[in-house]
Amino acid sequence: MTRSSQPSTPCQEIDPDHEIRVPEVPLELRSSVKLALLDRLFAWARKRSLSPLLFGLTCCDCDMAVNGPSQFDSIRPGLDSMSASYREPDLMIVTGTVTMKIAPLLVNLYDQMAKPTYVIAMGACAISGGPFKEGYSVVSGVDRLIPVDIYIPGCPPHPEALLHGILTLQDRLDPQTRAEVRTLQPRRDVGIAQPILEPSAVNWRDLEGLVGPRQEES
């Protein structure tokens, strides 16, 4: 209900973004009843029900797995247990080097995950290629293929860094409305993205420029 059509009744909360008035809860029900906007209810549900996809590539996967036991207890802030099925999870944590061979499979899994879908790039390899950047078979960052929400630098990042990244993602989801969710917007199907490789730092075809001219055999 808009502000112009809202009757003159006491109001408990006003949403400045949507110009919606939330009516006041009677005094006898305030201990058990809470009124909120539907968008905030959806945001609260998304924030507290993130389900990560089991998608470990290289060494950063070990630091991601450490968040499961009770020492870090990633389930307490609302992160569900990791699943190997791509139909249920809505959070993809990319840990490790993304190669040209695995890139189409990664994008295919992302498209088939539950919507809205969020992505965390964990480690230098997933962010920019790491020590393998500009390699002939390495994608220089997973954001060349799919949109990334949170970047966690390090080689490898500590488990505390991943937990901080998850809490940061939850803070971003809290004020998010359904109209602001990227994966819920209509978009044209462009198929599976092809990896974009950086130009190689070494021209391996120019061997003579690196090792000098070949010596002719006598």
Q: How many β-strand runs?
A: 6
Query: What fold name goes in the CATH topology slot of the largest domain?
Result: Rossmann fold
Beta-strand fraction estimate: 5-15%
Q: Based on the coordinates given, report the CATH architecture of the largest domain.
A: 3-Layer(aba) Sandwich
The backbone outline, from C-alpha atoms, is: globular
Helix coverage percent = 10-25%
What is the alpha-carbon Rg in Å?
Answer: 24 Å
Biggest β-sheet: count, sense, barrel? 4 strands, parallel
> CATH top level of the largest domain?
Alpha Beta
- Regions with little confidence, pLDDT below 50 for 5+ residues: 1-14
| Through-space gap between termini | 93 Å
Order of helices and strands: EEHEHEHEHEHH
**What is the number of helical segments per DSSP (H or I, 4+ residues)?**
6
Number of domains: 2
Average residue pLDDT: 75
Structural class: alpha/beta
The neighbouring-strand order within the major sheet is 3-4-5-6
